[in-house]
Write a structure and sequence with these properties.
By secondary structure, the chain is α/β, with parallel strands linked by helices. The protein has a single domain, classed as Rossmann fold (3-Layer(aba) Sandwich), CATH 3.40.50. Helices cover 32% and strands 20% of the residues. A 7-stranded mixed beta sheet has the order 1-5-4-6-3-7-9, with helices on both faces. Strands 2-8 form a two-stranded parallel sheet. Strand 4, helix 4 and strand 5 form a beta-alpha-beta unit. The longest helix is centred in the middle third of the chain and has 16 residues. The radius of gyration is 16 Å and the shape is globular. Pfam families: His_Phos_1 (PF00300). This is Phosphoglycerate mutase. InterPro entries: His_Pase_superF_clade-1, His_PPase_superfam.
């Protein structure tokens, strides 16, 4: 399997759990944000740019009891799933220009398999966060943390399609909270969200409801 050597892998994020202590401390006191948000950015207007967000769950992985969860590898089914979801994204014109991902092995392997189909994905700036692995297991915190991580690296001019790759339960919660509707994400499924806004900072607020365009589900 070819590795996506074009990815700019951020070593500081890959080796550390960003904000882990803060996240754990808030588990008991932070309720999940409400599903229904208050502001819709689904219609184009003067000075607004269409911004797209892909929330992709990692591909199917091997259930090996002798390997810690973080190091589980994707299965043969997972490889096919990753290839299929990449084909679907490419056919719909949703090619990411920025990637944020959990630093788990199965997440990285999912992206490597996708690169076999989406060659351009190999040249995309990618940031791996240990905290995106950790936060997905916590109640109601994933959406906020995705927004925090994204605002650290996103560029209003260069980045129009951002893909975040991670884990349930957090990814389903985040997709549901972004869109204001219940979203289910099977392995290698992707929620396609979009908004018109003047900046990423403007659209990455708790009060903003994104348009859920579609949920892509591999046939495997």
């Amino acid at each position: 399997m070819r590795s996506c050597s074009g990815f700019v892998r951020n070593p500081s994020h890959a080796l550390s759990v960003k904000g882990a202590n803060r996240l754990v401390a808030r588990v008991a006191s932070a309720p999940a944000p409400p599903l229904q948000q208050t502001t819709s950015y689904s219609n184009p207007s003067e000075g607004k740019t269409l911004r797209r967000l892909i929330l992709l769950r990692h591909a199917d992985s091997d259930q090996n009891s002798g390997v810690r969860d973080h190091d589980r590898q994707i299965s043969e089914t997972g490889r096919k799933q990753a290839s299929q979801v990449a084909q679907l994204l490419k056919s719909k014109g949703w090619t990411p220009d920025l990637v944020l991902a959990s630093n788990s092995k199965r997440t990285k392997q999912t992206l490597d398999e996708m690169c076999e189909v989406m060659d351009e994905l190999g040249d995309v700036d990618a940031h791996y966060y240990g905290s995106l692995y950790t936060v997905a297991a916590l109640d109601g915190q994933t959406r906020e943390h995705i927004m925090e991580c994204l605002l650290e690296v996103v560029d209003d001019v260069r980045n129009k399609v951002v893909m975040c790759v991670g884990h349930n339960k957090g990814w389903e919660e985040a997709a549901s909270q972004f869109s204001g509707t219940a979203v289910k994400l099977k392995t290698a499924s992707a929620a396609l969200l979009q908004c018109y806004s003047a900046s990423w900072k403007e659209v990455l607020q708790d009060s903003v409801q994104w348009q859920l365009v579609e949920v892509l589900v591999p046939a495997v």
